[in-house]
Amino acid sequence: MVPLTVRSYYSLMWGTCSPQALCTAAGQRGYNRLALTDTDNLYGLWPFLKSCRRNGITPIIGAELTDPGQTHRAVSLVAYSLGITNVCPVKHNLYFERFLNPGRSDPPDIDIDFAWDERDNVLHSVLARYDGHAALVCNHVAFQPRMAIREAAKVYGLADTAGRIVAGRKAGPYRSIADFIERVRPDEREARALIFAGAFDGLYPQSSRAELLWELACRHKSGSNGPMQESLFSSGPDVPRPLFPPENELERRRHEFAALGFLCDRHPMELFADTLKNLQIVKAADLPGFVGKHVRIAGLLITGKVVHTKRGEPMEFLTFEDETGLVETTFFPQAYRRFCALLDHGRPFILYGRVQEEFGAVTLSVERVDRIGKVNA
Please, what sign has the CA dihedral across residues 86, 91, 92, 98? Predict the structure, then answer.
């Protein structure tokens, strides 16, 4: 009797053992053949084949295909011919037509996707094993200055304004914020964002951003669409210029982060150091030393992926980042239902949960989430 439905930990939410552990257990039980049928992938193929050989077991290669659009390579004739799979697609009418397209002149290729946070480990392993016979190949896409501005502007919803910035710049460097507004005509929201981002700091190194915002507000209040005063702070006798307090550097950085989504010279989590200093926050780099314990971490939400349990309940794997590194977290169904509406990408949060280690990976099983500034002690 041969088990034909066997999943390793490459089948998310279905398997928990490595291919090596499965082969070792099968050998101890006297099996001379063993199948590996992970869901929608063949990631465990090579360790499975090596472990079968080491344990004197005949491997049976397969896969449970639930999404043909993502698994067509597994049923291709190329994979069968290379010995990657042992199911003949011709015999079972499992044609992968992209490799059979007569209009395709280049040879078949099979790419493999890796988790982004494991990429460096994979590269190191391949380069070490095939030393002198493996190399990195990449494409570099370079933007001309005009296109670079437009592409960056799309991200922040300023595509039309970026075009006007480029067009206005052809007439020569901007001499002042007044000159910029006359040539580009940004709306008030866009102008405020540019001020907060520090776009005009080079034109006014002795002035605070609060002064620039005041000048902008005066113009907006007057409803003027005519030329702006070339002398930035000469707004006329009816609008006396107030005395501005010294600029708070921390508040300045926070506005800059809100406008850009990043800081040019430091990690954004440094902005919240005073808020976090008495909360016993554990840094990402120190997390492996707290396995099995409950801790608090603080970080920016970087990315995430929603999956479903066997019962169909949603849960999520989320990645957070502080100034020392990344933290992989798990929001099991109960935590996911409670906090999913609270989480926004690029925002800082404090997480409380239990540190766990599985297969060498350290993660945090989250039990509570707080926005920074609204912390439950």
Answer: positive
Name the more confident of 346 and 235: 346
Contact 351, 320 (CB under 8 A): yes
Dist CA 104 CA 109 (whole Å): 12
Strand 314-322 versus strand 325-331 pairing type: antiparallel
Task: Compute how many other C-beta atoms are within 10 angstroms of the C-beta atom of residue 184.
Answer: 20
Give per-residue pLDDT as tens, 315-348. Answer: 999 999 999 999 999 999 999 999 998 888 878 9
Per residue in 133-173, pLDDT (tens digit) is 988 887 777 877 777 777 777 766 666 777 787 778 888 88
Q: What is the mean pLDDT of residues 354-375?
A: 85
β-partners of residue 38 are: 63
DSSP 200-250: TTTT-TTS-HHHHHHHHHHHHHHT--SPPPSSTT---TTSPPPPPPPPPHH
> Please, which residues bridge with residue 371 across strands?
349
Q: What letter would DSSP give residue 299?
A: E
pLDDT over 90, % of the chain: 25
* Helix or strand run (H / E) with residue 368: strand 361-371
The domains found in the chain, sorted by start residue, are 19-113 (no CATH), 174-260 (no CATH), 272-371 (2.40.50.140)
